Amino acid sequence: MAAQIYSGEKYASRRREISANLAKRPEFHDSKPLPFMTREEKILESSRKLTLISKHMNEIIDPSDKRELYHLNCEVLGIEGNPMALHGDMFIPALTAQASDEQQEKWLSRALRREIIGTYAQTELGHGTNLRKLETIATYDVDTQEFVLHTPQITALKWWPGNLGKSSNYAVVVALMIIKGKNYGPQTFMVPLRDEKTHQPLKGITIGDIGPKLAYNIVDNGFLGFDHYRIPRTNLLMRHTRVEPDGTFVKPPHAKINYSAMVHVRSYMITGQAIMLAYALTIATRYSSVRRQGQIDTTQPEVKVLEYQTQQHRLFPSIARAYAFVFAGAETVRLYERVLQEVETGNVSLMADLHALTSGLKSVVTHQTAQGIEQARMACGGHGYSQASYISEIFGVAVGGCTYEGENLVMLQQLARYLVKSAGLVQAGQSSKLGPLVAYLGAKSDSTSLIDRTPTPGFAEYVKTFQHIARKQTLKAAQKLFGFMEKGDTREVAWNKSTVELNRASRLHTRLYIVEAFVRRVEEVADPRLKEVLTDLLRLHVNYELLDVAAYALEDGFLSSSQLDYIREQLYFYLAKIRPNAVSLVDSWEFSDRELRSVLGRRDGNVYENLFAWAKASPLNKTDVLPSVDKYLKPLMESARASKL
Ligand SMILES: CC/C=C\C/C=C\C/C=C\C/C=C/C(=O)SCCNC(=O)CCNC(=O)[C@H](O)C(C)(C)COP(=O)(O)OP(=O)(O)OC[C@H]1O[C@@H](n2cnc3c(N)ncnc32)[C@H](O)[C@@H]1OP(=O)(O)O
Ligand SMILES: Cc1cc2nc3c(=O)[nH]c(=O)nc-3n(C[C@H](O)[C@H](O)[C@H](O)COP(=O)(O)OP(=O)(O)OC[C@H]3O[C@@H](n4cnc5c(N)ncnc54)[C@H](O)[C@@H]3O)c2cc1C
């Protein structure tokens, strides 16, 4: 199963080897539990481990293999970030996709060797979503052949970029490029921020950390201001866009090619989110198979809480989603890598498809991941609320994904633009022009679903029902938009009046894609035992998902209420059928205790002993009487006693 999760036995077994290697190297382990550390201690500890990784990674992984590096980082550094998180996730991808060969020689090679540390500085205090209204300006000075970076007002301060605050000495900065008074929109520049030797901010740069956040606090998200700060013309990233010495602008082959670092993260984060969801479910499912509370049969001992149907309903559909997401994530990464290669040869034809797909997936997957993690926390009762479970940290990190790389409700609209265009083609009788991801929009629906007509309906029947729902909602939402426009609204006003419906269409389209990705993967599985378990999980998934969106199919009679009952019964049947495999389904992700960082979710299942040892190790328990008691509580009680006398 691990080979299914990690797209092949090769990487699955490399993960095991890497974990086994690290088990023998205590210097790579957390020196104490992260929840017991202050933010400063965590940053110091993370930097220590990062240095070790840099020194010894060749002994543990193949550093050219991104997935091996990812696993090494998960084991050693964990999810709370590290001082070079953005260096790997965005700085290097931005240089790879946007710097010319010459620029790559100069900077990318140094970045890969970790001679410099970089980040991606785009968001500002006043604007994150609307990139065309960023306020940092880069004005071209023809005489000196330099760009002058400037922060004209407080809202133009860069705000949020990870590792900008304290760690990075370079950034890929996004600023509005002005040449001879003309605004050429957001462009990307390579900008030195700190002295390479002293790490002091360079003259003209104001920089610092933005303070603690909900989670992800090892990352020093930062602020940055420029005071007429000059960089050479050749610091504009010029793989696709160029500015000649005389100020002539050479257009890229696609207007949004500069957005590639965002598309990179959106493509990869689907897998990252699946893994965080699987972390929380591993903890909650293991704990639920240890925790005994209450009886189902009063003549029998108390049961494991995992025997309760409500607990299964709380956890198992999310287990299915984690599998679905990791399968969809693998497809997204393949598409991203293909588009990256095609863009190199000047072929930008798939950029719009990739953008639409990743915008939808990013939004749906992060939202459902956060919901699933929060349910996993509640599934652990009181102990889920303790940081010993580590689920609150996992939630805090994962839910950030709903906001970063494009706020979810905004990104759903990006997919909606694509769907509306496709609906326009259907309306115009040009369905043959639809891309493969939306070809179903041009097909004709059956009048009713056949879901309960055979003893075990095939997945095709479910896919058809999801297609019917997504098609109906897309065409209806597009019709709403076109209707407002026909009545005289501008496209923008009509769009705003239709966005709730448009975003519903985007979600349904994306959920259909996820179901199809799951079906595609299960169909490929050769081993019959594995196929049976994955088929059960997929059956649980399609029934759960369909129930969740059934209103769309009930309203036009595509599904009848008796079919709905059938779907419910199928769901309950598969909850019970999956129960004996539940722990194995989470164990198959093969997370080591080190990677999971959860006292509650350890493989040994010694929950109570582990929790008690953890509590005793809490810094508050180092002494029996705290200074706060000596200083305040004792005098308070003493004066109360004295006044009584
Ligand atoms: C390995 C990594 C794994 C895990 C990562 C873990 C941790 C990292 C943690 C945090 C890092 C976080 C980093 C950040 O958050 S960086 C900042 C991210 N910021 C955003 O995402 C901003 C969101 N806003 C936008 O992307 C754009 O403003 C928006 C797309 C919403 C609108 O842009 P614009 O106004 O320029 O365009 P429109 O007029 O709306 O559209 C015109 C047209 O262009 C198409 N389009 C837009 N973007 C793209 C694209 N990237 N590729 C292709 N095409 C694109 C759009 O669809 C329109 O098309 P059409 O409808 O045909 O006109
Ligand atoms: C953990 C974390 C890490 C980050 N790391 C980085 C980084 O490394 N580099 C970087 O540059 N940035 C980073 N960011 C910033 C992040 O990319 C932005 O916060 C994000 O893109 C959202 O933009 P915003 O803050 O402007 O939200 P806003 O756009 O202000 O959103 C506020 C509300 O307005 C709504 N809204 C906005 N526009 C529209 C619209 N057109 N239609 C309908 N509703 C709308 C949104 O849906 C939302 O409900 C990070 C953020 C976080 C939380």
UniProtKB/TrEMBL annotation:
<dbReference type="InterPro" id="IPR009100">
    <property type="entry name" value="AcylCoA_DH/oxidase_NM_dom_sf"/>
</dbReference>
<dbReference type="GO" id="GO:0003997">
    <property type="term" value="F:acyl-CoA oxidase activity"/>
</dbReference>
<keyword id="KW-0067">ATP-binding</keyword>
<feature type="domain" description="Acyl-coenzyme A oxidase N-terminal">
    <location>
        <begin position="1"/>
        <end position="117"/>
    </location>
</feature>
<feature type="active site" description="Proton acceptor">
    <location>
        <position position="405"/>
    </location>
</feature>
<dbReference type="GO" id="GO:0005524">
    <property type="term" value="F:ATP binding"/>
</dbReference>
<keyword id="KW-0285">Flavoprotein</keyword>
<keyword id="KW-0560">Oxidoreductase</keyword>
<dbReference type="InterPro" id="IPR012258">
    <property type="entry name" value="Acyl-CoA_oxidase"/>
</dbReference>
<dbReference type="Pfam" id="PF22924">
    <property type="entry name" value="ACOX_C_alpha1"/>
</dbReference>
<feature type="domain" description="Acyl-CoA oxidase C-alpha1">
    <location>
        <begin position="259"/>
        <end position="420"/>
    </location>
</feature>
<keyword id="KW-0276">Fatty acid metabolism</keyword>
<comment type="pathway">
    <text>Lipid metabolism; peroxisomal fatty acid beta-oxidation.</text>
</comment>
<dbReference type="GO" id="GO:0005504">
    <property type="term" value="F:fatty acid binding"/>
</dbReference>
<keyword id="KW-0547">Nucleotide-binding</keyword>
<dbReference type="InterPro" id="IPR046373">
    <property type="entry name" value="Acyl-CoA_Oxase/DH_mid-dom_sf"/>
</dbReference>
<keyword id="KW-0576">Peroxisome</keyword>
<dbReference type="GO" id="GO:1904070">
    <property type="term" value="P:ascaroside biosynthetic process"/>
</dbReference>
<feature type="binding site">
    <location>
        <position position="162"/>
    </location>
    <ligand>
        <name>FAD</name>
    </ligand>
</feature>
<dbReference type="Pfam" id="PF14749">
    <property type="entry name" value="Acyl-CoA_ox_N"/>
</dbReference>
<keyword id="KW-0443">Lipid metabolism</keyword>
<feature type="domain" description="Acyl-CoA oxidase C-terminal">
    <location>
        <begin position="460"/>
        <end position="638"/>
    </location>
</feature>
<dbReference type="InterPro" id="IPR036250">
    <property type="entry name" value="AcylCo_DH-like_C"/>
</dbReference>
<dbReference type="InterPro" id="IPR037069">
    <property type="entry name" value="AcylCoA_DH/ox_N_sf"/>
</dbReference>
<dbReference type="InterPro" id="IPR002655">
    <property type="entry name" value="Acyl-CoA_oxidase_C"/>
</dbReference>
<protein>
    <recommendedName>
        <fullName>Acyl-coenzyme A oxidase</fullName>
    </recommendedName>
</protein>
<comment type="similarity">
    <text>Belongs to the acyl-CoA oxidase family.</text>
</comment>
<dbReference type="GO" id="GO:0055088">
    <property type="term" value="P:lipid homeostasis"/>
</dbReference>
<dbReference type="GO" id="GO:0071949">
    <property type="term" value="F:FAD binding"/>
</dbReference>
<keyword id="KW-0274">FAD</keyword>
<dbReference type="GO" id="GO:0005777">
    <property type="term" value="C:peroxisome"/>
</dbReference>
<dbReference type="InterPro" id="IPR055060">
    <property type="entry name" value="ACOX_C_alpha1"/>
</dbReference>
<dbReference type="Pfam" id="PF01756">
    <property type="entry name" value="ACOX"/>
</dbReference>
<dbReference type="InterPro" id="IPR029320">
    <property type="entry name" value="Acyl-CoA_ox_N"/>
</dbReference>
<dbReference type="GO" id="GO:0033540">
    <property type="term" value="P:fatty acid beta-oxidation using acyl-CoA oxidase"/>
</dbReference>
<feature type="binding site">
    <location>
        <position position="123"/>
    </location>
    <ligand>
        <name>FAD</name>
    </ligand>
</feature>
